[in-house]
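Late entry, written up from scratch paper. The run itself happened at the end of the previous shift, but nothing got recorded in the book at the time, so transcribing now.
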Amino acid sequence: MRLTPGPAREIDLDRIDLFDLDLYSFGDPHPVWDAMRLRAPLHHQVLPDGREFWSVTRYDDVCRVLGDHREFTSERGTVVTHLGTDDVAAGRLMTSTDPPRHTQVRRAIGRHLTARAVAPWEERIRRTVVRFLAPALDGEPFDLAEQALRLPAIVTGPILGIPERDWDELVRLTAMVTAPSDPHFRLGGEAATLAISHHELVTYVTERVKRRRAEGGADGSLLDRLMTVHAGDAPLTDEEIALDGYSILLGANVTTPHTVSGTVLALVERPDQFARARADPSLVPNLVEEGLRWTSAACNFMRYAVHDTPIGGGTIPARAAVVAWIGSANRDATRFPDPHTFDLTRNAKAQIAFGFGPHYCVGAPLARLTLRIFFEELLRHPGTIELDGEPEHLRSYFIAGMTHLPVVARKRAAP
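Output as recorded:
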């Protein structure tokens, strides 16, 4: 979807379809979200097939929906592609579980992904990023969006304990889960694509667990650590390990590539910001936070109201689905003045691109480290980065990203 909104236009909120895939692959949803925050902070839509959902778009309301599991549960599903069918893994899959069980599983994983825990990986990640960027910075035509899909696997594969031979297939499968209607990843219809990708990912982790048990040991990788996790007084079952491994693979692969591509595009379109970042490396952490706010790669998450709940000037009925639009919250002018301006000097630390509340992304410290290193290395290049073709946007109402971003690096002419 377009990250820089086009000209202002009239928005008929009674007729807007937030599940219109064209709005995200070819269109401009930010003016729609602007209108919703102003005129309909609680919005109700009924789809042609009878499914219905409520939407919140203001920053404080989005944080409330994501942050309070007593009012808005995750235990019926959390992604909009499951709207209308309760998640069969609810209560077992970490992302579809509320505290206290969610907290128990998350804490066991999260202690290996704190900022302190991932800091020793910096030099290895830097070597990986340098190798990744080498073809682009040598002046070869480079499709950043296409290549960046593989970047998280290159960085996290060794941490997760996934052999290199499996990286490309897992990247493809996780893309199928999050963008099942995009022609680059679709296999048949959307439902078939989701079913195939879910089955293949869960099977991959299941087989890995079986192999580890047969070998009688573990290599200390993050996926292996799931085999030692307890929820309450009992260890996770093999099925629960497979489901949580599936969740970790999704989290590792999905959002970072689109944050990279969207932030690079913002810099290419704003040479003054690019020059300022290159001239002052101390701005890179700011650039990362502004890039996260600007791209909001996971642009929404879903919850279900536990009971009739007043919010946004209305009431969400008990058991109704509510979509919290992160992409809108991160452009709320009450929290981020002049929100449609990309400004790397902005203090954007309040952005919620990693979510909010109990389900705040457990891998956020590793993602931030990877993004910082990526932009530090990109900005070392002394020339310019230019578009070498038109961006192509992902066909998804869940993930805001690109499938193609052709760029070329050009060396500065000698004075």
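The CA atoms of residues 112 and 257 lie 22 Å apart.
(Scratch paper discarded after transcription.)
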